[in-house]
Amino acid sequence: MIIAELTITPLGEGTSVSKFVKEAFKAIRATGLKIELTPMSTVVEASSIDDIFRAVKLGEEAMLKLGAKRIIIDIKIDHRLDKDATMESKKRAVMEE
Amino acid sequence: MIIAELTITPLGEGTSVSKFVKEAFKAIRATGLKIELTPMSTVVEASSIDDIFRAVKLGEEAMLKLGAKRIIIDIKIDHRLDKDATMESKKRAVMEE
Amino acid sequence: MIIAELTITPLGEGTSVSKFVKEAFKAIRATGLKIELTPMSTVVEASSIDDIFRAVKLGEEAMLKLGAKRIIIDIKIDHRLDKDATMESKKRAVMEE
Amino acid sequence: MIIAELTITPLGEGTSVSKFVKEAFKAIRATGLKIELTPMSTVVEASSIDDIFRAVKLGEEAMLKLGAKRIIIDIKIDHRLDKDATMESKKRAVMEE
């Protein structure tokens, strides 16, 4: 699987942006992809980079609909081909003694 | 509080780096700061940026001790002064209906 | 315009990855988009997020062709709708006295 | 040398933040470290991670002085021990045919 960490931030909408982040999170969740909300981003697990990019665009569109005029998007993708890494296996590999 | 998302990656140690990430995670956890492991990073909550940077250096040192010869560090810091944001309050603000 | 900062890094190919980065850079340059190489990334200017994502995929494919088995992609996108920002206008705004 | 890519963004100061970025850039430049402005960040070359972190704090302080109430800091550090990489050598390695 391909795992990505997404942060979508509206600039110019005050210091509190949770109204925007909430709508973007809902749009990403609605894709049906496996996701995990963290205090700094949303982690997404997908079978293709296109699915990741589609989720990002849906998240951004949700913010644009709320009137955002400038959006900063941060995406970090971990694409592993030699092993089927998942969100769970990556965390387990760090936590296992 | 100041919240930071840290990813420390050794380059040149093969495709599987969990041995290194595990030691860095342990070093960061030993700081006693509140932390959360995600599939892509470790989120840390601290009262100063110096505490964040100290945790990063401890994590990197743990990898250097294992012999890493090149390390990529990604840090994203959310420093909010108008409200005492925490890891929990940031997630709650997104999850609340 | 939409401006993006791209860093594509192969994991597991030794500490020196310039052979991979060079091929990815050539593939991104071949898109014809306006680009700027920095010591840490390639900055790209495009009229749509799809163009940015297409350039990223071409860069990654170039590394996959060289045999990379794990690839970390970092993308930071600045999408401004209230003003036509360009790579030059963003730098000028910072450098102007 | 250690090379880092820094982006310091004030949240809540409108869509145009160049007034803040300019002051942060000046503060980082005043450290005397070798720097390069890109359309998305400032790249810094230093002999220690402490120098990088000091530059980041000076940049943030410049924005706080202007009244910023929430600041997002992105730092990507490339720390190579097996070779003395510089900003120039990294770019040359990609551009050389």
Automatic annotation (TrEMBL), chains A, B, C, D:
SUPFAM superfamilies assigned to the protein according to its UniProt record, in alphabetical order = MTH1187/YkoF-like (SSF89957)
Q: Which domain of life is it from?
A: Archaea
Outline the extent of the Thiamine-binding protein domain: 4-94
The record's Pfam families line, in alphabetical order, gives: Thiamine_BP
Q: Record's Gene Ontology CC terms?
A: cytosol
Query: What NCBIfam families does the record point to?
Result: MTH1187 family thiamine-binding protein
Family from the record: Belongs to the UPF0045 family.
Q: What name does the UniProt record give this protein?
A: Thiamine-binding protein domain-containing protein
